Amino acid sequence: MVMGGDWDLQTYPVSELEKYHICRKHFVDGISWEDAGAYANMARAFEEKPDPDGCRTWDDVKRRFDRLDELYETIKNERKLLTQKELNGKKAMREKGGIYMHFNRHGEPIFSRGGSHRFSISLILELEEIPVQIGVIHKDGIEKFIQKYSAI
Predict the structure, then answer these.
(1) 3-state class (DSSP) for residue 126
(2) DSSP-derived secondary structure for 32-57
(3) Is 4 inside a domain boundary?
(4) Cα–Cα distance for residue pair 148/87, rounded to 1 Å
(5) How far is CA 115 from CA 4, 100, 119, 129, 150, in A?
């Protein structure tokens, strides 16, 4: 979607996201998921909806964090975050289910919370490129967006 207005001015740094801090504590500092605050975060999420991050039980949560550990190691070794198409074959369109980004009036990305763990991992590992699902582009940033990303 293309949209004008001031929606892109109400942002804050990714470093303020709780999931980013949890991932840094776990992957960089070697702290367990539980001690890093991941389970407390999920407990709050369970209060808000019945299946946060696709988890319905605490066993699901444990499996999810085990998969995130595996994902981290794979991305660390391959230095690449796979696209949804690479993961899911021809069924994936427009990176649906990927890391969700909007683009501001300057054509710069704004993280929109979808894919928080994958985005945090990509930041921690300092990946040069990541696939994203595009949400909203500010109408004043379309030309800059095209100039910046059309060669990719």
Answers:
(1) coil
(2) -HHHHTHHHHHHHHHHH-SSGGG--S
(3) no
(4) 26
(5) 25, 6, 6, 15, 23
Q: Report the predicted TM-score, pTM, of the whole model to 2 decimal places.
A: 0.87
Distances in Å between the Cα of 96 and the Cα atoms of 39, 65, 71, 113, 147 are 27, 22, 19, 14, 23
Distance CA 141, CA 38 (A): 36
What is the extent of the structural domain holding 125? 13-149
Residues 94-118 pLDDT 10s: 777 789 999 999 999 999 878 999 9
Q: List the Cα angle 149/102/107 in 5-degree steps.
A: 45
Identify whether 2 is part of a domain: no
Residue 118 lies in a domain: yes
